[in-house]
Amino acid sequence: MTTPAQTSPRAIELIGINKRFGPVHANKDINLSVGQGSIHGIIGENGAGKSTLMSIIYGFYQADSGEMRIKGQPITVKDSQAAISAGIGMVHQHFMLVENFTVLENIILGAEGGAVLAGAIGKARNDLKHLEEEYQLDVDPDAIIEDLPVGLQQRVEILKALYRGADILILDEPTGVLTPAEADHLFRILEQLKAQGKTIILITHKLREIMAITDTVSVMRRGEMVATVTTAQTSLAELAELMVGRSVLLNVEKTPATPGDVLLEVEDLTVRDERGVMMVDNVSLNVRAGEIVGIAGVAGNGQSELLEAISGIFPALSGRVLLKGVPIHVTGGADPALLREKGMAHVPEDRHHMGLVLPFEQNENAILGYQVRKPYVNGPFLDLAAMREDANEKIKKYDIRPPNCRLKTANFSGGNQQKIVLAREMEQDPDVLIIGQPTRGVDIGAIEFIHKRIIEMRDAGKAILLVSVELDEIRSLADRVLVMFAGRVVGECAPDTPEGEIGMLMAGIERSEAAE
Amino acid sequence: MKNDLPRWVDMGLIPLLNVTAAFLVSGLVVLFIGENPIQAVQEMVFGALGYGEGFGFTLYYTTNFIFTGLAVAVAFHAGLFNIGGEGQAYIAGLGVALVCLSLGETFPWWLTFPVAIIGAGLFGAAWALIPAWLQATRGSHIVITTIMFNFIAASLMVYLLVNVLKVPGSMEPATARFADGGTLPFLRDIIPAFGYSPANISIFWALGCCVFVYILIWRTRLGYEMRTFGFSQSAAVYAGISPTKIIVVTMLISGALAGMMALNEVMGQAQKLQDNFVAGYGFVGIAVALMGRSHPVGIVLAALLFGILYQGGAELAFAMPAISRDMIVVIQGLVILFAGALEHMFRPSLIKLFTRSEPVLAPAE
């Protein structure tokens, strides 16, 4: 491991930054130095303190102690306004755009410069043209944000930061919502920005991206900056080890599947959302006992709606779903309670709003959906003792930390929250398991555990339908991979199909086109 | 969760601070009109707690507030804002009066009482049913519909009292006085020290309802499903909980609890059904539920506080003529303002004070 030579002038330096939240030392004596005109990656597990550090740079939090320097000058950033005037721009994970405004209106938002907009708009239009030419960031300034694909929306965020004169651009998990092609385009833009002398800080948990684009990379673990290395001189395995402090298996070990009877059959399922937009378009698939069928695709291509229709949460327009050969009433909205009774368990994509009730105690969430079953209820009454005993068993078996079934669910980390959901759904011994985004926002240690449990369920003869936006996850877990694009299943392939080929399908490029 | 405060702060300190702030501002008001605030507080506390009859009145008001506070709290737990307690209690008065008029002549009070409870519950629930149904199936917002139903209830009751139920020849829009079997024993019948206060045994039923609500919310499957729905509707749907069922059942229970207030007023105090007997108790129930954190114990304490304010205020207006009846309403309004509308005023600074320990990120494992 080497420390990068500090030859170029420093764009931003952090010296001895400390931030505590009560007993939690979120940032411990952080030193960071990013050279001007370079791309610096910051990686770390969930809860490692990356977001806290960026929030300090951008003025959301004040550090308890420590110093920050921009281009060698000490500076205090007391709010985001101060950060902007110091030349720091931030592109958040969730875009901060007004959906029904035009691109131009969004760009001048907060920088209108007066009560009358006409002047600002004219100036912005001019400036925008220069920015677009300089960085090849083409966006139609008069397009409405909600009509733009996410890749372009992100470009608007970047433009917004540049318009405000950002020299240092912080991007928080920028590729989470992008197709591989869009991500590549983003990287080209970042390269362009770098060539123009901008400094870029990239926060991600995707090691591959770090390797592909950064010049230097810092690794955070438990609030500490454990290493800063030159990207060219490190490896995926080394970074992964630094992140978790031990070697992790990046590949899941599993034996070939031995599929049995078809337990879940979906025929010509069509779902329109509340606005009447076709989200699932004539999808047919089946899942056999003892196999994992993975659905790959960029978020928003109908996977969520497919899961919700199958699990009875949102009614389908037409089509049939058979659970163990018996049709379930998906068009009128099947009753999720009835589906559970018939042996279907569902780990929803959105654990915060659907899978868990965050203000509940852990033991209360451990029965969500099963609140009708013994031993949790006794007639109309809850059996608190049985609930807690059961919750404690699951805490032990799934290594949920902290091991306290009376703790509010909101106070568990993302990985442990996900384990609470998985424990609940898996321990009811279902025949069919529907899993959405099993490891979204989950740290590497927990990912490994969750993947093992999913494989164990498969080996126990369960039929598993898995949806994930992480292609790596689909490829390492699934026995068959279906790719969804624009509501349709556009292809089926083996999990060892090259990533690029699946990526093409995910981006809606047909195999025949790709071959040309 | 950013708003995670220690339980005792959330349940004890914040209400205490709110009340203190309300009293300080009230004190300034009293000072402004040239009276001594210390003396005013003494008059108020003595009037509400210092002697038997005064305390009896306090308990009588408290009874009303417990019922209407519980009604609001039950709906809160399912994320519903029932501000129709006023109308539900009013209509429930009709149910109580019908029972007392028809059974009071022939049966003793202890046989009439359970039937009157059912009457109050059914009529109160029925008045909540239509807004609940509209919310559950049509999405008509329950705040709008319940408040509209308060006006419909008021008009309907005036019509019935003036045209149907009024005693012929009487000028008062009220039913005939109930026979003895249609009235509740006063506390003064057991403890003479309560003087002429209208406190009656419905207060024990009010405490019973507190136990019922506690068990319902935290010990039954229905309560679990109500809380799930209240915190997260999408989680409820995921868990196979029918929103329609929860909205309707919760509002029926809430309406029935609001209706119980009529037992105290109609069967206990007035012994007849009168025009406008609800007199705002239904609305004060919202402040009681907010201040009591929707917990039965908190509601009993908050109801007692409002009972003290009502009774002590009346005595204060009597003892210090400069403080008119209207000033008392101002003081009560200030308490409602601080406990209700400004409920979160002290919260942010307390959160800062107490949750320095609050991890924004999950603690590292």
Largest sheet of chain B: none
Helix content of chain A: 25-40%
**C-alpha Rg of chain B (nearest Å):** 21 Å
Q: Order the strands across the largest sheet of chain A as they lie in space.
A: 6-7-8-3-9-10
Poorly predicted parts of chain A: 1-5
Estimate the strand proportion of chain B: under 5%
| CATH fold topology of the largest domain in chain A | Rossmann fold
CATH topology of the largest domain in chain B: ABC transporter involved in vitamin B12 uptake, BtuC
- Indicate the radius of gyration of chain A in whole angstroms: 24 Å
Shape of chain A: globular
Low-confidence stretches of chain B: 357-365
Mean pLDDT of chain A: 86
Helices of chain A, by number, come to: 18
Give the CATH superfamily of the largest domain in chain A. P-loop containing nucleotide triphosphate hydrolases
Helix content of chain B: over 70%
| Dominant shape of chain B | globular
Q: What is the CATH C level class of the largest domain in chain A, in words?
A: Alpha Beta
Mean pLDDT value of chain B = 91
Strand segment count of chain A: 22
Greatest chain-chain contact: A-B, 54 and 31 residues
Describe the overall structure:
- The complex is a heterodimer of chains A (516) and B (365).
- By secondary structure, chain A is α/β, with parallel strands linked by helices.
- Chain A folds into two domains: 10-244, P-loop containing nucleotide triphosphate hydrolases (Rossmann fold, 3-Layer(aba) Sandwich), CATH 3.40.50; 262-358 and 427-515, 3-Layer(aba) Sandwich (Rossmann fold), CATH 3.40.50.300.
- Chain A has 18 helices and 22 strands.
- In chain A, the strands form five sheets. Chain A has a six-stranded mixed sheet with strand order 6-7-8-3-9-10, sandwiched between helices. Chain A has a six-stranded mixed sheet with strand order 16-19-20-13-21-22, sandwiched between helices. In chain A, strands 2-1-4-5 form a four-stranded antiparallel sheet, with helices on one face.
- In chain A, helix 14 runs parallel beside helix 15 (444-459).
- The radius of gyration of chain A is 24 Å and the shape is globular.
- Chain B is mostly helical and 365 residues long.
- Chain B folds into two domains: 1-35 and 322-365, no CATH class; 58-319, ABC transporter involved in vitamin B12 uptake, BtuC (Orthogonal Bundle), CATH 1.10.3470.
- The two termini of chain B are 18 Å apart.
- The A-B interface holds A 20-24, 26, 46-49, 51-52, 222-223, 311-313, 335-340, 346, 348, 350, 353-360, 364, 367-369, 371-372, 377, 380-382, 384, 401, 408, 410-414, 416, 445 and B 1, 4, 219-225, 227-228, 231-232, 234-235, 237-241, 355-365.
